[in-house]
Design a protein that fits this description.
- This protein is mainly α.
- 74% of the residues lie in helices and 0% in strands.
- The chain has four helices and no strands.
Length: 138
């Protein structure tokens, strides 16, 4: 049962991320991130419009093949966000606990990363036992 909740949390988080990046692109086009991010991070943030929904599909299928990409995408997203926001945090640490920004993405990243290994263990056992992975882990 807990596996379903963790996967649902992952899906909701990645859907929110996809929505946020889509809104950014609607508001400012592909150059929205040019104001504060170097070109490689701009490309990554724009790419999240595709990567986040793809991750939703992979995780939503409740397959182990979705867990590693989810971890990779969120770790890179957290690192990229910290890179572009570090000057602000350094100047004024009070910006960290804002409800939008580094705090939620960091907490979500920790959630996904910390749950990856237990999810993979349960999903592997469920595959061996024949139960669908989303129903494992009672």
């Amino acid at each position: 049962m807990w596996v379903r909740w963790v996967l649902a949390g992952d899906v909701v988080g990645f859907l929110e991320g996809a929505g946020a990046h889509c809104l950014d692109l609607i508001r400012g086009g592909v150059h929205f991130y040019a104001v504060f991010a170097p070109v490689p991070l701009q490309v990554f943030f724009v790419g999240l419009v595709v990567l986040d929904p793809l991750t939703v599909v992979l995780v939503g299928l409740a397959r182990p093949e979705g867990v590693w990409p989810a971890s990779g995408v969120v770790v890179l997203d957290v690192l990229a966000n910290w890179c572009v926001n570090w000057p602000q945090v350094k100047e004024d640490p009070a910006v960290l606990p804002y409800p939008v920004g580094l705090l939620p993405i960091t907490l979500f990243g920790l959630f996904v990363a910390a749950s990856s290994a237990p999810l993979l263990r349960v999903m592997a056992r469920a595959r061996i036992g024949g139960a669908p992975a989303g129903e494992a882990g009672g």
